[in-house]
Amino acid sequence: MSEKSFRRKFTDEFKKQVADLLNAGKSRSEIIREYDLIQTH
Question: Residue 2 pLDDT > 90, yes or no?
């Protein structure tokens, strides 16, 4: 049985928040971990 993959949708506000964190010096890996942005199977 195969699972259908789906694409998560993020609000513009969330995208801006993540961009602001990156610009403030937070690492990409910290943001990914903190917001659970990588989907694991």
Answer: no
